[in-house]
Amino acid sequence: MADLSGRTVAIIVADFIEDAELVTPRDELSAAGAEVRVYGVEAGSVQTVEGDTDPKQQVEVDGTLDDLDVAGIDALVVPGGTVNADKLRVERRAQEIVREVAESGKPLAVICHGPWLLVSAGLAKGRRLTSYPSLATDIHNAGGDWVDEEVVVDGNLITSRNPGDLPAFVKALQDALT
Amino acid sequence: MADLSGRTVAIIVADFIEDAELVTPRDELSAAGAEVRVYGVEAGSVQTVEGDTDPKQQVEVDGTLDDLDVAGIDALVVPGGTVNADKLRVERRAQEIVREVAESGKPLAVICHGPWLLVSAGLAKGRRLTSYPSLATDIHNAGGDWVDEEVVVDGNLITSRNPGDLPAFVKALQDALT
Question: What pTM was computed for the model?
Answer without folding.
Answer: 0.96
